[in-house]
Design brief:
The complex is a heterodimer of chains A (207) and B (468). The radius of gyration of chain A is 21 Å and the shape is globular. Chain A contains eight helices and eight strands, in the order ββααβαβαβαβββααα. By secondary structure, chain A is of the alpha/beta class. Chain B has 468 residues and is α/β, with parallel strands linked by helices. Helices cover 31% and strands 16% of the residues of chain B. In chain B, helix 2 (39-47) packs across helix 5. The radius of gyration of chain B is 21 Å and the shape is globular. Classes of the chains: A alpha/beta (207), B alpha/beta (468).
């Protein structure tokens, strides 16, 4: 993935709690074998509603999504992250997130900033006050800032995720530095394998 | 040394490396693969010139996209067909055993792992599917991952992981007659909320859990993710070991006894300390149903649709109002007066042989209401064959249910089995999210016996009403 340092852009307030990954990208979109082009499916069932916030012209081109508690719960589909990023979002700010969604985001470089629920409400109010306001999500400083308002909040970012974002590291490459330890582990593991259970056609072999 | 929880034992057993300042690297014993979350991962391997490190620890099946029409009918949706073909091609290229549509071992990934005996106690199991938590019923650490992690496991057979916290959910006492595993887990999700389990591995404990069959424990662990927990666990006991005996992936003879004695160590020590403990009393449990658009919005079958005005918290009140508007429900309506259009018995939550037996016992000698379409989708070909050998298919067909081919089906509507806008379902699946079973569809989660009774009476019902 590409390194991520600072995201600076306009923000969209999505004032809903429990935005699950089925809402972010409905399952009909999951039949595709590609990794690109999911932006068109982002929140697709809600986008039919003209009053849905993403249809509001004043938020066009925003790069930061601000949402209610428990964003990204439910299905493990990484397609949710691909859809958000393909649409143009580079960071999501919310009071809490689904664990798998948070993990998936970190693999793709979508920045997850978890702020206290009152801070998220304040941020939404600032955006409503002036939708043209810039919001800065700074990975290096682990903070969210609304310039010229004095509004700055820190968010927790574990050191490893922060390093990976800043350096754009590939997880598989990082793990393979420990290949020797993986091989050592495999020589001592007693966990059963599938060897001898199925034949080449997937039928169960007689013992 | 202080005692360890079951989770800690499995974690410690699988630690490959714990580099300073980095996430721990844990070994994955079994990687289950399906068509939806894997094609981009295989592409990633090809792009980087990588191989699958352990094809002998990787098993694939088609489940999410497959139509449940008779096998003679080809897959009509060209996009789904392409994805199903891609799974077979990728498995062929990388040397992975795969069960395509129609194969005798094909079925929902979380049904086939246990029934083939490849899910075993003490293992680490992952799959690109959040309901991988199901396998925790066997005392295995099993959790869902995204496609990048699928690629990571294919390439390295490991995952970088931060150690989760541990939570004990204790259900004390015996569950009352008529209360199923589904009712227990709905009560747990309602208690914890959709985010209550976040960052935790939950171990289910207590008499009501010990009383459950393996099928029931799978239903329970399956919905751990609905409370935000990535994994659920039940300690190994005689029930676990007797379920595993004789299954294809399990050793036989003396080797079985040796394996079984090792499996028995996969329990939490008496003096183990959990980071958090939540206790429920089984005596308080009843048949439950979801009324809203998230799985924590639960009410008993003899209850009424809640009123937003009953909630002091303005956020909960507004969420309730939104959910009721989507669900087309009026506060105060008795649940048992709400008519349904579709009944779906299936999914990785409730499509196993015991679920079908329970539903058939309710349906026997009755008929589905004229206004209802009722589908039975067995979890796998093995479940389907077993049910047919017991004559359950005939019970369902005579009662007016559809008897279909196995797959994920209407749980998530990736195949043609979908609700149409405004249709209301009683579903034995795991998620009642907006549009989950089809755009505009209204899903109520229930147990298999409630689903069967509802199909017959055409409105939400408990089994005791069918014969009265």
């Amino acid at each position: 993935m590409k390194p991520v340092h600072v995201i600076e852009g306009r923000a969209v307030p999505l004032e809903r709690a429990d935005v699950d990954t089925d809402q972010i990208i409905p399952s009909d979109w999951l039949k595709r074998v590609e990794r690109v082009g999911f932006g068109r499916g982002l929140f697709s069932e809600w986008r039919d509603d003209p009053s849905f916030v993403l249809n509001d012209a004043q938020f066009a081109g925003a790069t930061v999504l601000v949402a209610g508690p428990r964003f990204g719960t439910g299905s493990s589909r990484e397609h949710a992250v691909w859809a958000l990023m393909d649409y143009g979002f580079e960071a999501v700010i919310a009071p809490s997130f689904g664990d798998i969604f948070r993990n998936n985001s970190s693999k793709q470089g979508l920045v997850i900033a978890q702020l206290d629920v009152h801070d998220v409400e304040e941020l939404m109010a600032l955006i409503h006050e002036d939708p043209t306001r810039l919001v800065i999500v700074d990975v290096e400083k682990s903070q969210v800032e609304v310039p010229q308002t004095g509004w700055i909040r820190q968010f927790a970012l574990d050191p490893m995720t922060r390093e990976r974002l800043l350096n754009g590291w590939d997880d598989i490459g990082l793990t393979l530095r420990h290949e020797h330890e993986i091989t050592d582990y495999e020589t001592t593991s007693h966990a059963p394998t599938l060897a001898g259970v199925f034949d080449n056609a997937g039928h169960v072999q007689a013992h | 040394m202080a005692g360890r929880t079951l989770f800690e034992k499995i974690w410690d057993d699988h630690l490959v490396a714990a580099p300073d300042g980095e996430s721990a690297i844990i070994y994955i014993d079994l990687h289950l693969v399906h068509e939806v979350t894997s094609p981009q991962a295989f592409d990633g391997l090809r792009l980087n010139g990588r191989t699958v490190r352990r094809p002998d620890r990787t098993l694939a099946t088609a489940d999410h996209d497959v139509p449940t029409d008779p096998l003679s009918v080809p897959v009509k949706d060209p996009i789904a067909r392409r994805q199903l073909e891609a799974l077979e091609e990728n498995c062929e290229e990388f040397g992975i055993t795969v069960f395509p549509r129609g194969h005798e071992n094909q079925g929902i990934v979380h049904v086939i792992g246990p029934e083939l005996g490849v899910t075993q106690p003490g293992m680490t199991i992952v799959c690109g599917d959040s309901h991988t938590s199901t396998h925790g019923a066997f005392g295995a650490l099993a959790f869902g991952i995204g496609t990048s992690e699928v690629e990571h496991v294919l390439a390295t057979q490991t995952l970088p992981q931060q150690r989760a916290k541990s939570m004990a959910v204790v259900v004390e006492g015996h569950a009352p007659e008529g209360v199923t595993a589904k009712d227990i887990v709905l009560a747990i999700v309602a208690t914890l909320g959709t985010g209550g389990g976040a960052g935790h591995v939950v171990e289910y404990r207590g008499q009501a859990i010990r009383d459950l069959s393996m099928e029931g424990r799978m239903t329970l662990c399956n919905m751990s993710i609905e409370a935000g927990a990535r994994a659920g666990l039940v300690a190994v006991d005689d029930t676990t070991i007797e379920y595993l005996r004789g299954r294809p992936g399990v050793p036989s003879g003396d080797d079985f006894d040796e394996a079984a004695s090792r499996w028995r160590s996969f329990v939490s020590d008496d003096d183990a300390v959990f980071d958090q403990t939540v206790t429920l009393s089984a005596a308080d449990l009843k048949p439950f149903i979801t009324w809203g658009t998230n799985p924590a919005q639960v009410v008993s079958l003899d209850g009424v649709v809640p009123d937003p005005a009953d909630f002091d918290d303005p956020d909960i009140a507004s969420t309730t109002e939104r959910s009721l508007a989507y669900m087309g429900l009026t506060p105060g309506t008795p649940i048992k007066e709400i008519p349904v259009d579709v009944v779906f018995i299936g999914s990785c939550t409730n499509s196993r042989i015991e679920d079908l037996r329970a539903a058939a016992a309710v349906a026997r000698g009755h008929h589905v209401a004229d206004s209802v379409r009722a589908l039975i989708v067995p979890g796998s070909h093995r479940v389907k064959s077993q049910a047919e050998s017991e004559g359950l298919d005939q019970v369902f067909l005579e009662a007016g249910f559809e008897w279909r081919e196995p797959g994920c089906s209407m749980c998530l509507g990736m195949n043609p089995d979908q609700l149409t806008p405004g249709q209301r379902s009683a579903s034995t699946s795991n998620r009642n999210f907006e549009g989950r079973q089809g755009r505009g569809g209204r899903t109520h989660l229930v147990s298999p016996v409630v689903a069967a009774a509802t199909a017959i009476l055409g409105r939400f019902a408990t089994p005791d009403e069918v014969n009265s």
